UniProtKB/TrEMBL annotation, chain A:
GO molecular function, one term: oxidoreductase activity
Example GO biological process: mitochondrial electron transport, cytochrome c to oxygen
Transmembrane segments: 111-133
Family note: Belongs to the cytochrome c oxidase IV family.
Subcellular location: Mitochondrion inner membrane
GO CC annotation: mitochondrial inner membrane; respiratory chain complex IV
SUPFAM superfamilies xrefs: Mitochondrial cytochrome c oxidase subunit IV (SSF81406)
Entry protein name: Cytochrome c oxidase subunit 4 isoform 1, mitochondrial-like
Keyword terms of this UniProt record: Membrane, Mitochondrion, Mitochondrion inner membrane, Oxidoreductase, Transit peptide, Transmembrane, Transmembrane helix
Topology within the bilayer: Single-pass membrane protein
Listed InterPro entries: Cyt_c_oxidase_su4_fam (IPR004203), Cyt_c_oxidase_su4_sf (IPR036639)
UniProtKB/TrEMBL annotation, chain B:
Organism from which the protein derives: Ciona intestinalis (Transparent sea squirt)
Membrane topology: Multi-pass membrane protein
Entry's transmembrane regions: 20-42, 63-87
The family this protein is said to belong to: Belongs to the cytochrome c oxidase subunit 2 family.
Name of the coding gene: COII
Keyword Transport: yes
Stated name of the protein: Cytochrome c oxidase subunit 2
């Protein structure tokens, strides 16, 4: 589920990513380089999030090849750059856009579903034990007759005369208020 | 005494009990305020619309999140300290009784009545009559006069126990080798139950406390009978 979510997050910008970071995955806290395709020019400890959006250092440490050309063009007039080139320059400095950081994720649905499955197994087990394993019923002090007798005893001893049973008993007429 | 399915504090029969209940309500109100504030703040932050402006540091923010918790703590702490010293009170009493915790029963000695000494054991569940309270009934309950300032001196014979009466908002540790003093005063006659509140071994849950507050005549008759026995 998380892989699918990440793929969907990445695929919106995959057209612009091929030139700069062909093997990037948007993970927790920002893009993460896959180990087998690690680019030595990319800052490995790069981190940005919604609460810390501006990184200390750019994501790309060394501008080589096409990026070097773009960097020289960046010094000049930006209107001469195409949208794709501007995007590549942005992606070379930052890892994730603010819109990507604010995007809702739906991994919680998987967690909730798995949790509900486990809870339902537990409830089924409880039901089985209650029906087939528990010993036969014996008397308890929570039987109806016993509870009634204990309430009567509390009323006779005037226990709970502010918020308890005695406060709800009409002593003059010998009945509940 | 608690009704069934009761989740509040029980009625108090002492002045200090009322104070304790009021302080409890005040503390809970503070906690509810804190919880609501935290939930609202987390809901607002979760919207992901806000980008932190001064994320490198903010003196005003640091001041605010230091000042408000300190303010809340002081507002809870001062009444708590006041109540604590109020509860200790004076050591003068019209009567003095001694409570000694044993494994696993309580014994009561009358400080003013030299021959008064009795032990209080729990009535087993099998021997209960219908309507009696499980794990609360005792064979010999402590009988005291109501509307009288009584000084209780509580200690233990072996391990630490705790003498508790929720209806009078009392909880005093019974520590071996130490005498803890507490004043007990009931507005009205009645029957009050409690249980040992400090883990003391195998039958820790089976050493209840039962105190009956009666008028002076009944109390004196009871003391005379017990002394003869």
């Amino acid at each position: 589920m998380l892989r699918v979510a990440l793929h969907r997050v990445v695929s919106h910008r995959s057209v612009h990513l091929t030139k700069v970071r062909p093997s990037m995955v948007v993970g927790f806290g920002g893009p993460v380089q896959l180990a087998e395709n690690r680019d030595p020019n990319v800052n490995p400890i790069f981190h940005e999030s919604l609460t810390n959006p501006i990184p200390d250092k750019p994501r790309t440490l060394k501008y080589t090849g096409d990026l070097a050309t773009l960097k020289e063009m960046e010094v000049g007039d930006w209107k001469k750059l195409s949208v794709e080139e501007q995007m590549d320059l942005y992606n070379s400095y930052f890892g994730t856009s603010i819109a990507d950081m604010c995007r809702d994720q739906d991994g919680w649905k998987s967690v909730l579903g798995a949790g509900m499955i486990f809870i339902s197994f537990g409830l089924l087990l409880h039901l089985f034990i209650h029906l087939y394993i528990n010993p036969p019923y014996v008397w308890t002090t929570l039987d109806e007759d016993w509870v009634k007798a204990s309430i009567k005893r509390q009323i006779q001893s005037h226990a709970g005369d502010i918020t308890g049973y005695s406060s709800k008993w009409d002593y003059a007429n010998n009945r509940w208020k | 005494m608690y009704p069934y399915s009761f989740i509040q504090l029980t009625d108090s029969n002492t002045f200090f009990g009322h104070e304790i209940v009021l302080f409890h309500d005040f503390s809970l109100a503070s906690l509810v305020f804190i919880l609501t504030a935290v939930l609202l703040m987390s809901k607002a932050l979760k919207k992901k619309k806000y980008v932190v402006l001064a994320y490198k540091g903010s003196n005003m923010l640091e001041f605010l999140w230091t000042f408000f918790p300190v303010f809340i703590l002081i507002s809870i702490g001062l009444p708590s300290l006041y109540l604590m010293y109020l509860l200790e009170g004076s050591f003068k009493g019209d009567l003095t009784f001694k409570v000694v915790g044993h494994q696993w029963y309580w014994s009561y000695e009358g400080g003013d009545f030299n021959d008064f000494d009795m032990s209080s054991y729990m009535v087993p569940s099998e021997d209960l009559q219908e309507g009696q309270f499980r794990l609360l009934e005792v064979d010999n309950s402590m009988v005291l006069p109501y509307s009288t300032n009584i000084r209780l001196m509580i200690t233990s014979y072996d391990v630490i126990h705790s003498w508790t009466l929720p209806s009078l908002k009392m909880k005093v540790d019974a520590v071996p080798g130490r005498l803890n003093t507490m004043n007990i005063f009931s507005f009205q006659p009645g029957s009050f139950y409690g249980q040992c509140s400090e883990i003391c071994g195998l039958l820790h849950s089976f050493m209840p406390i039962h105190v009956e507050f009666v008028n002076w005549e009944t109390f004196l008759n009871h003391v005379t009978e017990e002394s003869f026995n």
